[in-house]
Hints:
By secondary structure, this protein is an alpha/beta fold. It has helices at 2-10, 22-26, 29-32, 47-54, 59-72, 95-101, 122-135, 183-190, 203-206, 211-216; strands spanning 16-19, 37-41, 76-83, 104-109, 138-141, 164-165, 171-172, 258-260. Strands 1-2-3-4-8-5 form a 6-stranded mixed sheet. Strand 6 and strand 7 form a beta hairpin. The longest helix has 14 residues, at 59-72. It is globular, with a radius of gyration of 18 Å.
Amino acid sequence: FEEIVNLFHSKGIKLAITSNGLSVNKMKEKTLIKFDDADISIDFPVRELHDQWRKKDGLFDNAIKAIERCKKLNINASIVSVLMANNFDYFQQFKPLLDKYNVNLRINLYKAVNKDEFTPSYEQFWEAIEAMSKSFEVVSCSEPILSLFWDETTGGSKCGNSMRIHPDGNISSCVYVRSNDSYEKFNTNKKTLPEFCNGCMVSEKCVGGCYGRRITENRQKLPDMFCPFFNKKKLPAIKFKKYKESKELIHSNYLCTIILR
């Protein structure tokens, strides 16, 4: 592991790590400081709920310890969490942690890789997004469906902007999707606008929404499951605010994600 980190670092390749805290806390300092970004996973901003969800006591404290270590070493640290049906109404409670440790909150939308019992409903998703807009400011946004409210959303689905090498040696174009499509075919398909989206005011930036999520929901030819127009709902009255130090970060370039402060 250290050899790979040293190799990439020597070539000027930016490195990022996502960890529950364990790897960051165990890594040698001389290796850790070569990372540009460190995202520490916290599912719930409440110690008892996070540890209960991950079925092991002490994991929340371990995550906080990792954040403190990164801050001490001047590594850009963030909290990363997944928006799910069981935590969609907790995100506002992350704000005190962000302020205390001066870190960002990066949020990925849950994708049903194996089962979809934790996929937020349409109503839960938009309730969470509205609450975020009132409590946080946007550092960076690459989640296509949010181009409805954020003009600076980077265009199109970020799925396919990277490749994932799985333990069995197979390669996929999205961190959430194992597809038999070639890298070239995947990227061509993700740029194909669903017929329903023709004429939409944000079609050039949304391009149907996150392609990885559409695949996991078997919606390749349909728009994003959270699209208000497809669901025949009113456009939510949401307005995002821009963080003063808004910028693109490593994860924004290859994941459909939103980074808040």
